[in-house]
Amino acid sequence: QVQLVESGGGSVQAGGSLTLSCEVSGDPYPYRVGWFRQAPGKEREGVASMHTRRHETLYADSVNGRFSISRANGHKSVYLQMDNLKPEDSGMYYCAADTVYGGVWTALTSWQYWGQGTQVSISS
């Protein structure tokens, strides 16, 4: 099975940048990895997803053009580069993974594995 550990969260001012890391371990290596976030009182939502071999990526409209998900060839970690951060980007960010196809990426039930999350706080 797969284990996921997020890191890189913190507190920054609006307009700043932050890079989140998802350490992926275990077997098999997932075919897709995604990032999700949840603000207090809000539902968890999809932020970005990528096919780990094809490097195809998908983004929520709210972060498109500001966030970038990536993985270096031959490396297991997946990253989320966040630029031009806004207060509404605040929340707990989770890494998720699938070893088999699970359906549309924005559906939480489509994902097999989840990390414990890393906190992101953006002040205005």
Can you describe this structure?
- With 124 residues, the chain is mostly beta strands.
- The mean pLDDT is 96.
- The radius of gyration is 13 Å and the shape is globular.
- The relative contact order is 0.31.
- It is 0% helix and 49% strand.
- The chain contains no helices and 11 strands.
List the topology elements.
Elements: E1 2-7, E2 10-13, E3 18-26, E4 32-38, E5 45-51, E6 57-59, E7 67-70, E8 78-82, E9 91-98, E10 113-114, E11 118-123
Parallel strand pairs: 2-11
Antiparallel strand pairs: 1-3, 3-8, 4-5, 4-9, 5-6, 7-8, 9-10, 9-11
Please give a quick description of this structure.
The protein has no helices and eleven strands.
Main attributes?
single chain; 124 residues; mainly beta; 7-stranded mixed sheet; 4-stranded antiparallel sheet; 11 strands
Number of strands: 11
Low-confidence residue ranges: none
* Shape summary: globular
User: What Rg, in angstroms, do the CA atoms define?
Assistant: 13 Å
Instruction: Quote the distance from N terminus to C terminus.
Output: 40 Å
Average per-residue pLDDT, rounded, comes to 96
Describe the biggest sheet?
Answer: 7 strands, mixed
Task: Please give the count of helices.
Answer: 0
Which class do the helix and strand fractions yield? mainly beta
Could you state the order of secondary-structure elements as H and E?
EEEEEEEEEEE
Strand-residue proportion: over 45%
